[in-house]
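Sample pair:
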Amino acid sequence: AYEKNVPIFCPAFVDSSAGFGLVKHQVENPKSHIYIDAIADFRELTDLKIHAGTTGLLMIGGGVPKNFTQDIVVAEDILGHNAPMHKYAVQVTVADVRDGALSSSTLKEASSWGKVDTAFEQMVFSEATLAVPMIASYGYHKGAWRNREFRRFNELFAEQPAAAE
């Protein structure tokens, strides 16, 4: 990701064991500590959507990362841009709407909110360590990426000022 200037977003970092470590780090280093701005992440991901045009999602699991990436379409619209839905979407999950694990949130439901176009959506009900290597292998061996110019989305943020301390 670093070598190809691909930004990485971690919308629920504090909702992890690493988040506990950051809390301790902040308490022990009140004047100089790591600062994570989830709103800036959401804004930057929305900016990526605005600049990218046609977008797609590959979601492994669900929860916050799924909502975070789907909702940028809504944020783009709120900011006054003509927000097309994500054109493609694949979700790999073992969750099932019957037991409430997906909160009844299939990709078809995301379409009803204007987030995902159902023309090219696919729910993959499989354990991720089985499905994702096969999906990645297929994409790699198909080779469409070989002649594709890298977008270098990180460069969109190079001119933005750093967050205030």
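The helical segments are 17-28, 38-52, 64-70, 72-78, 107-112, 128-142.
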